[in-house]
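input
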Amino acid sequence: MNLRYEVVDVFTSRPLRGNPVAVVLDAQDLSSETMQAIARWTNLSETTFVLPPTDTQADYRLRIFTPRSELPFAGHPTLGSAHAVLKNGHIAPLDPGRLIQQCDVGLVEVTIDERDGGRELSFSLPSAKIETLSPDDVIELERIVGCRVDALHAPATVDVGPVWVIAHLPDVATVLDLRPDLTALAAFERRTGVTGLTVFGRHEQGDLTIEVRTFAPSCGVDEDPVCGSGNGSVAAYQWAQRILPPDGCEYLATQGRRVGRDGQVKVRLDGQGHVWIGGACVSCVEGVLAV
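output
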């Protein structure tokens, strides 16, 4: 079986600087076991499979796999898959200017912004469920990351499909210098049932510009170069903690410098705390996958 296949770099307009996702088109004849085998083989943080929708409101259905497991939703795979679908003329959107993706968390809206000869995509973050981490778990987390976290704004789990522990660190230098104990973090993730850990700190040049890092060793991803759902969870966490303006805002998050990338994530919140995550995408590999 030969299937159309792309590797899309997400949150960058420059190849090899963002977070790649492998996108397999016309995947309706693949079993779940074959999808997981392909995801193990690509060995990227996520591999996606585009399928016909079963919901009449959706343009397509997406299944998302890490090398070890399936995810109900993920951010950069959503944008990269939408880019591949549009680029290949795979579907004609039911509503011009947006796509509706069906996945295990439900329907996810992706807006299409064509400007200056380029295309920028943004997804609407699924509703976040936020719970403050217990004091004992905070102590364990500080042991794992090797530094203190913000005591005023306590770490929390943010469930948007994947479940991220979000921790605010003192500054960008602390974020970039972080060397978490990945074995201990994987055990923490399995014990608490979370996907991974996302940390952030503020850049000095702008109160609303942050540096982000994401780790998910229990999923086979020691460090995710640029994480859409992680950045969305950071935004939802900041809104819940009243760190961000109550009437909404826009800011830029940067991620990936510690792994040789330069991801740029555009974050927007409205006055109700609804989060949109956007950025550029570029195809780096196009071809046929033989299965």
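quick obs: Residues 2-125+279-290 form a domain with the Diaminopimelate Epimerase; Chain A, domain 1 fold (CATH 3.10.310.10).
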